[in-house]
Amino acid sequence: MRADPQIARAMSAHGWFHELAPAHQAHVLARVRLQHFAAGEVLAHRKAPTEDWIGVHTGLVKLAVYNAAGDSCTFSGVPAGGWFGEGSVLKRELRRYDVIALRASDAIFLPVDDFHFLLDHSLPFSGFVIRQLNERMGEFIAAIQNQRLLSVEGQVAAALSQLFNPQLYPFTAQRLELSQEELGLLTGLSRQRVNRALRELERLQLLRLAYNRIEVLDLERLRAYAQRQI
Fold first, then answer.
1. Which parts of the chain are coiled coil (predicted)?
2. Which residues on adjacent β-strands are paired with residue 56?
């Protein structure tokens, strides 16, 4: 059966797909689905069975939990190019967080059984998943550390820097199409505090601000700024 052209184009943008053998590429193209979500829409619910490994093709999503009062804790933001949920897929457990679109987004879903098929039969895919898990662990440890030890400016600098992880988020460009409100949702900070932090980082010539856009001028200095505070 011939693959859907739209799905084939979407998958061709993701590096791990090109590492697969042709037969495994065909398997993926026959099984994945591409779905559009409006801003604020839920891609996957916390405590629901984990049925898919999810990739963000376009847009931006966040992984978060909410309590009964509506307070939230954001674990991570995932921009276009990022894939997530390997741990829950591997263990076939209930999902541990809500996945919410922060803007209009297109997501790719690979069913859990097909994820395990690739893991069992494709060495390149297994290698990719191991690297993902290693980088994700580092990201979560850094997020806890940053929240507890960094100033607001440091937290914003660290959050921006994390979006440039080439293993987790290979699509990220120097000019981030990211609003201050979205950055606030990723960091758990108010828009006002994010605005003040960004102005300070701009004053230090680490970034340049425009409408709904943040241009990182010196990524290494931005990372170093956050690390110096620890």
1. none
2. 107
